[in-house]
Every structure is written in C-alpha cells, then in structure tokens.
Task: structure prediction
Amino acid sequence: MLGTIGLKSFLLLSLMIFSLGMVCVLTRRNAIGILMGVELILNSANINYLAFAFYGGGHYDGQIFTIFVIMLAAAEAVIGLAVVLAIYQNFKTIDVDAPKPSAADNDVESDCPRRVPSRERTAGRSFYCLSRARE
Amino acid sequence: MGVVGLYILLAADFVAMVQLLVYVGGILVLTIFAVMLTQGIADVTVSNRAVGLAPALGIVAIASGVMAYAIERTHWHVAAAVTPSPTTYGIGNAFLGDYVLPFEVASLVLLAALIGAIVISRHEARE
Result:
C-alpha cells in the first residue's frame, strides 16, 4: 500500500503543515487563531513521529510519544483558552497587540466604578477597572 | 481532521482514534466555545492588519527552505516495510511497562491543567 509513498513525502507534508502553523502564529492578532496555529505545529510533529516509527521498523515508541503529544495539546488548549477567556473578561478584547494598561490608567481606575467598554476607545485606554466593579 | 487519515495510512490505528476523539470531543468544542464567548473579535477595525506579514513570511520561508533542503539531501535509511497490524496490545504493554512513569505523570499534568483552567477562568469578587 505504501510502496510508492516514501518517508520523504511525509516529511515534506509535515514541513508544509509546520510552515502554515508558524505563519498562523506569527501573523494572527487573534489569540484563538494563535492557539490554532500551535495545534497545527503539534500535529506536524505528530506526523513526523509516526512516519519515523513506521519507516523505522514499526516500533511502538513513536506512537507512544505521539499519544503524549496529543495529551499535551489537549492540556495546552484547555489552559490557553482559559487564559484567553480571562483576558477577554478583563480587557474586552483578545487582540494580542492591544495596548497594555499603563500607569496613567491606574489614576482613572479610582473614579470609574462602572465604565461601559467601547470597542473603539480601547486604543486609548484600557478598561480593566470594569471587571472589578462587576457583581 | 485529515491528519487522522495519515495516521491510519502509517499503521497507527490506536493513535488515529485517540486523535479523533480528543480533537472532536475536546479541542474543537473548546475552541468553538471560546469563539462564541468572546464576541466581537471579527469586527475590530485594524488599520495595519498585515504589518507583520512580510517578516513572518520571510522567516518561515527561510526556515522551511533550510528544512526542505535537509530533507532532500539526507539519505534516509528505511527499514523493511511492516505489515499493518493492530497496535493496541503493544501500546498497552508499553504504557504499563517501560513508560509507566511518563504515563502517571501525564495523568497528573491533565489534572493540574483541569484545576488550573477552573482557577483561571473563574472570576469572583476578591475584595
């Protein structure tokens, strides 16, 4: 069945998937998009493991490492998406290039118990004081 | 995902099923929930959306070119082709034999990830 498909084909396919994931990680501003890119990179590593395990004599070591990588990908997705949701609750944006709260914003925090977040003003000021006033 | 078909092609049936279950049951649902819970991520008006596109493409092109060159130039020693057979027995033996310590550590990592996700995503009034 695999007489015509060589190891090199699988390695090149894995390289392509890795490159797509790397471009996705480097260019996305959306944090969820970055996590999807990380999943692509982990999948390319899995394809490499299984290809070497298959063409290297059929040992089980590569498959076991693949299962560990899948487990790590699941844990990474859980933690990453929890962090993204926490950031969204505090900053109302998941743009990774959004400006961070500066020292000047801390003065505003004392007199804004409930400031309505407006998406077009996030470039000028962050609204992390909003979540503190949430019931 | 389409990667599952490649795993089956590489005679890794158990890994393919694990990948299918984990991704469909876990990661896909989590991603969809995160996309739905974080509203308004599509209508951010970004004027310089592609500001990092050219350096990223350059870096990835250089790196992937080097790796493709290495893949093409290396003479890979390919063992004799194995006949596809069920791998569950061997994987189970290896998990409870040689790899029993990483197996238990993996369960601890998953437990820590679960508790950590609950702690991070829970918001409560601290003061």
In short: Chain A touches chain B through 69 residues (CB under 8 Å). The radius of gyration of chain A is 22 Å. The helical segments of chain A are 7-27, 31-55, 61-91, 103-109, 129-132. The first helix of chain A runs from residue 7 to 27.
